[in-house]
Write a structure and sequence with these properties.
Radius of gyration: 21 Å
Low-confidence stretches: none
Number of domains: 2
Strand content: 15-25%
Largest sheet: 7 strands, mixed
CATH topology of the largest domain: Rossmann fold
Mean pLDDT: 90
Number of strands: 9
Shape: globular
């Protein structure tokens, strides 16, 4: 609670009382019960040990929507909202599209798209290798009332797209060239050992699932796998109209482009002006 202790204390007290923060301001003479104080003390103790506030609360806002988060999923980052915003701002361009969120985690991206894209000519899929992460994503879909709009699949990156069921349901649309495939991938891209990060940053990351953060010595382990799967996908569907939206570290943009040499690449900056997203088509 080092950065904004007063503000965070209010949030934690509101959580302990199960009341909105505004209620605290209107009832500043309220005396919490022993049970409420005990809950508050436990929450404060967790935060004091460096556990991210979102995990302590069990919730994080993304693109104006609430999302449940726990140790099985990464906390959605504000910069990732940019790619969601870019897609929702170009609704007309993604009509007749199959949108696949690879490594969906909490489901923040695909669920935000489901809430904002009302076009019936869009099919939404979310993939994750973690059963626990998919459970959280499905809970979030229900929380935001879009569970009927998204198909959740378990598998390693694009593997579920090569099943017979997928080919029967979606393959014909893609093979005919009438539908576009939009693949969103915010995969693990941190380097083993977390070079360049402070001790405090490493401690904060220690609460998040390692398999969703680390990707080998150069941070591109999973993007290399994705690149190979994309080659296989294009071979299966020669007329495929494909666009990839990838998020990575600014230092990884150049080597990431080299993994997809046949694509035209466009780099998008994040809120801090750093190269953060790569759009390939």
């Amino acid at each position: 609670m080092a950065d904004r202790p007063g503000w965070e204390a209010e949030i934690l007290l509101a959580e302990a009382l199960k009341k909105p923060q505004a209620w605290l301001l209107a009832h500043n003479d309220y005396r919490p019960t022993k049970k409420e104080l005990a809950i508050f003390d436990r929450l404060v103790a967790r935060r004091a040990k460096g556990e991210p506030l979102a995990y302590v609360l069990g919730e994080q806002e993304f693109y104006g929507l609430p999302f449940k988060v726990n140790k099985n999923v990464l906390i959605p980052r504000p910069e990732t909202e940019l790619i969601t915003q870019r897609i929702t701002n170009h609704k007309q361009q993604i009509a007749n599209s199959v949108i696949v969120d690879v490594g969906t985690g909490s489901g923040a991206i695909i669920i935000s798209l489901a809430k904002n894209l009302k076009n019936k000519d869009i099919k939404l899929f979310a993939i994750d290798i973690s059963k626990e992460a998919l459970t959280v994503a499905q809970q979030n879909a229900k929380l935001n009332k879009v569970e009927k709009q998204i198909t959740f699949l378990r598998g390693n990156l694009l593997e579920p797209l090569f099943t017979k069921k997928w080919k029967l349901e979606i393959g014909n649309c893609l093979e005919a060239g009438n539908w576009k495939l939009e693949i969103l991938a915010n995969l693990p891209y941190l380097k083993t050992g977390l070079p360049g990060l402070t001790k405090a940053q490493k401690h904060a990351l220690s609460f998040e699932p390692r398999q969703a953060l680390l990707a080998g010595t150069d941070g591109l382990k999973y993007y290399r796998q994705l690149a190979e799967q994309v080659k296989k996908l294009r071979a299966a569907y020669p007329r495929l109209n494909l666009t990839l939206y990838l998020e990575a570290d600014p230092d990884q943009m150049a080597p990431l482009k080299k993994l997809f040499p046949t694509f035209k690449a466009k780099v998008i900056k994040d809120f801090c002006g750093r190269n953060r997203f790569l759009i390939l088509n």
